[in-house]
Amino acid sequence: MKKLNMRELLRKYNLILLLLVFMIISTILSPNFLTIDNFLNLLQQASIPGIVAIGMTTVVLLGGIDLSVGSVLAFAGMVSSMVAMNIGGIGGLLLAFLAGLCVSGVMGLITGLLISRFKLPDFIASLAMMEIGRGAALLTTSGNPVFGLSEEFHEIGGGFLLDKLAYTAIIWIILTVVFALLFKYTIFGRSLFAIGGNYEAAMLSGIKTKRNYTIAYILSGLLSGFAGILTASWMSTGQPTAGNGYELDAIAASVIGGASLSGGKGSVIGTFGGVFLLQIITNIFNLVGLPSYYQRIAKGIIIILALLLNNFVSSEQKKK
């Protein structure tokens, strides 16, 4: 009975356990880790990849994958930056956001339609959109960053509440709550789990699988585009190389957070924890002054350990 209870606790709280372990390690390595300023800095640094990861989780619940998120982020950031640079005032800010969201939403729509209507594998369709998005981001200014953005534009992604809590962190937290409620209490949210769990059964039960697939990829595109606009705002620069590797971090965060790449399992709250854990790892290496390439090795090891742990817990559940 005791072993059974331990396995149940491990199943429910394995991510919290990982977070605690790495927080203890971080505190031992650097006394500066457990400070309010460092915690708020962690939230800010994790907010942009966290927003992208929410969209990735939406797709992963279906058993899909979206490799285009980093490129969509970059292209939307470039488009919004160019609009903000050429059109001033509040109207310019609104148009910059709308332009960035429009291009990212259309890119997500195309990817979704290629998968749901034309039966292309999600890996191939999103890989193609990844190349198109990155090429388009570089093409807009021949690979040059966009400078000269206004202070008003910078304030949206680079501003702070009470000079402490970044606006991007607040936005990330709000979006996490909104999507957690969406997944749990709406027909669309519950249908994602049903489709990911058994596509044929979901289709036979009357769930509009093609439509929901398309909507999921549109949401992934919109969230990536929104993250791209916030990135350009935060940096006060439209950078065509922004978002490199974000697709891998987003997938990793979803998996660490308990999502299954075969679909039907996952949560946006778990993804929030996964993003935060990856950021803690980055923070540890920054605090102790180790090169960034060690971070990639550490992230890979953490992903493997998280998958092994999830597989172990799942196998024990099946034995019951």
From TrEMBL:
<feature type="transmembrane region" description="Helical">
    <location>
        <begin position="12"/>
        <end position="30"/>
    </location>
</feature>
<keyword id="KW-0812">Transmembrane</keyword>
<protein>
    <submittedName>
        <fullName>ABC transporter permease</fullName>
    </submittedName>
</protein>
<dbReference type="Pfam" id="PF02653">
    <property type="entry name" value="BPD_transp_2"/>
</dbReference>
<keyword id="KW-1133">Transmembrane helix</keyword>
<feature type="transmembrane region" description="Helical">
    <location>
        <begin position="50"/>
        <end position="75"/>
    </location>
</feature>
<feature type="transmembrane region" description="Helical">
    <location>
        <begin position="165"/>
        <end position="183"/>
    </location>
</feature>
<keyword id="KW-0997">Cell inner membrane</keyword>
<feature type="transmembrane region" description="Helical">
    <location>
        <begin position="213"/>
        <end position="235"/>
    </location>
</feature>
<feature type="transmembrane region" description="Helical">
    <location>
        <begin position="297"/>
        <end position="314"/>
    </location>
</feature>
<feature type="transmembrane region" description="Helical">
    <location>
        <begin position="87"/>
        <end position="115"/>
    </location>
</feature>
<keyword id="KW-1003">Cell membrane</keyword>
<feature type="transmembrane region" description="Helical">
    <location>
        <begin position="268"/>
        <end position="290"/>
    </location>
</feature>
<dbReference type="InterPro" id="IPR001851">
    <property type="entry name" value="ABC_transp_permease"/>
</dbReference>
<keyword id="KW-0813">Transport</keyword>
<keyword id="KW-0472">Membrane</keyword>
